[in-house]
Design a protein that fits this description.
334 residues, Rossmann fold, CBS-domain, 2 domains, four-stranded antiparallel β-sheet, 16 helices, 13 strands, globular, binds adenosine-5'-triphosphate, binds magnesium ion, P-loop_NTPase, ABC_transporter-like_ATP-bd, ATP binding, ATP hydrolysis activity, AAA+_ATPase
């Protein structure tokens, strides 16, 4: 568990004082992804870097598993925390394998163990070790470099990861792909992750909890669903945007809706020649809704993993679930 207790940071330069983080308190549970969200300059990076003491704290304290980080040995603290920055920070003169093994090398691992770990991580991120290990960072695409940056932070298996806009420089399609990959990996590794973003959609997709900041103050700390359903103030409401009901749909899957409706049919064979629109059980409801709205029949067949038909959904099925305003449905249709 990571506990922020009245954490404050005041930058002082010449005669000017900037309170970048103002008495912030909240707790992050082990194994959860907490996204720090907010506009530029609200203090996200400052708060993140105080956790591994890259930035000295001015007031309050940060505890990791009940221990005040100030009282911990700095090197031990840093080694227990993986850190990923936006421009991945790979060393240009080191190969991919050497980059991944920077911390293991510091920890004195032998060559065989390091090579094994590097191969394992490259595999995990879909990069063939034979093809990529000996390359240099500039021989990789931006998305591949970003994967290596995360692999490097995971190399010594730290229980905590700090990630500062790690996907910010990627184009939207690659970004979504890596986000999904990252979530799958997190299902297995279950790290406690503090993840900075200024993108509400990214936060909703990744977070177990979202902390929204404004001018160094914590505006709301809640689950994505609670933030979308009950924004605490006007700032949060404006930040999440006017289509919060639709955003909530991304948190639920077709399976959730069928279960709620009690409409799981007996499986029947689906005839692909009928050219009906289809959706998968695991699709999120926003994707499902846009497929239904663009289908000529106004409905979509739900397919199970083996391609069998499990049910049919129409727009009106969504009414039972959430108060999607008709104007929002029009927005998604466009
Ligand atoms: N070294 C510094 N000296 C003085 N002021 C600083 C310093 N670093 C950051 N600040 C100020 O502290 C505030 C918070 O900065 P911080 O970098 O934490 O914001 P951020 O939320 O990460 O922004 P961004 O989304 O742009 O990365 C800003 O007003 C910034 O100008
Ligand atoms: Mg920042």
């Amino acid at each position: 568990m990571i506990k922020f207790d009245k954490v404050t940071k005041i930058y002082e330069s010449d005669s000017k004082k900037v309170t970048a983080v103002d008495s912030i308190s909240f707790e992050v549970n082990p194994g959860e992804i907490c996204v720090f969200l907010g506009p530029s300059g609200c203090g996200k990076t400052t708060l993140l870097r105080m956790v591994n003491r890259l930035i000295p704290i001015t007031g309050g304290k940060i505890e990791v598993n009940g221990q005040d980080t100030q009282s911990l040995d700095l090197i031990k603290l840093r080694r227990s925390i993986g850190y990923v920055i936006q421009q991945n920070g790979l060393f240009p003169n080191l190969t991919i394998e050497e980059n991944i093994c920077v911390v293991p090398k510091l920890l004195g691992w032998d060559r065989v163990k390091m090579k094994k770990r590097s191969d394992e991580l490259l595999d995990l991120f879909g990069l063939q070790p034979d093809e990529f290990s000996k390359r240099f960072p500039w021989e990789l695409s931006g998305g591949q470099q970003q994967r290596v940056g995360i692999a490097r932070a995971l190399a010594a298996d730290p229980p905590i990861m700090l990630m500062d806009e790690p996907f910010g420089a990627l184009d939207p399609i690659i970004r979504e792909h890596i986000q999904n990959e990252f979530l799958k990996i997190q299902e297995n590794v279950k790290k406690t992750i503090l993840f900075v973003s200024h993108d509400i959609d990214e936060a909703i997709r990744l977070a177990n909890k979202i902390a929204i900041f404004k001018d160094g103050h914590l505006m709301q700390y809640d689950t994505p669903d609670d933030i979308l359903a009950s924004p605490k103030n006007k700032f949060v409401e404006d930040f999440i945007g006017s289509d919060s009901s639709l955003k909530r749909l991304t948190l639920l899957t077709v399976r959730d809706l069928l279960e709620k409706l009690g409409r799981f049919r007996k499986q029947t064979k689906y005839d692909p020649h009928r050219s009906q629109s289809t959706i998968q059980l695991s699709d999120n409801l926003r994707t499902a809704l846009s497929i239904i709205l663009s289908s000529h029949t106004g409905e979509a067949v739900v397919l199970g993993q083996n391609g069998d038909k499990l049910g049919v959904l129409t727009v009106s099925d969504f009414e039972s679930l959430t108060s999607v305003h008709p104007s929002e449905v029009t927005a998604i249709r466009c």
